Amino acid sequence: MLTLQQFLFVIGGIALTALSWGSYGPVLHEGQHHLGNDRIKPLICVGLAYLVVAVIIPSIILIAQGRFSGDWTFSGFTWSFAAGTAGTFGAFGIILALTNGGKPWVVMPLVFGFAPVVTTFISLFSKNLWSQAHPIFYAGLIMVVAGAVTVLIFQPKPSPPAKTAHASKEVSQSEEPQNPLIKAAKESHKPETE
């Protein structure tokens, strides 16, 4: 059973993650726009943010607590580094999607709709839990796919530009132009009849 403090930290952590990851796509898309829609420069900026938030600040905290030098293991480092690499490839995938016309309000729901499915499959595979997967689990997967298709089909789209009366009016070749200069030029080039 969780204590009240633990419960608040769990809820706070979930809220922080939802807020951070939920704002990631729109903020990244805006940054990309200001970097000339480049694919690589935003990734460098994301990497710098990772460096500050995930390396420098935790290192300072661990050094201040005197815990920096102990308990580093090769397997722990390798798995954690693999997780960071996966996250970085994920950031690059989002950048690719956004620079090739994907919109944050479509890309992010799809990413975060499918990410839990991938997490679950990795867990099922690594823990060999396939026999324990309930049929409702598979029904949930079908719902995720249906949700993704729904997001793609019914994504917000800009309204087509309204047709103006001027743009829709077709001018036939036989009509005389309204501009007097063009009219005079045409008349001066007409062959004279005898």
From TrEMBL:
The keyword Amino-acid biosynthesis does not apply. The chain crosses the membrane at residues 6-28, 40-64, 76-98, 105-124, 136-154. Residues 159-194 are annotated as: Disordered. Keywords: Membrane, Transmembrane, Transmembrane helix. Residues 184-194 have a biased composition (Basic and acidic residues). This is EamA domain-containing protein. It comes from Bremerella cremea. The lineage of its organism: Bacteria, Pseudomonadati, Planctomycetota, Planctomycetia, Pirellulales.
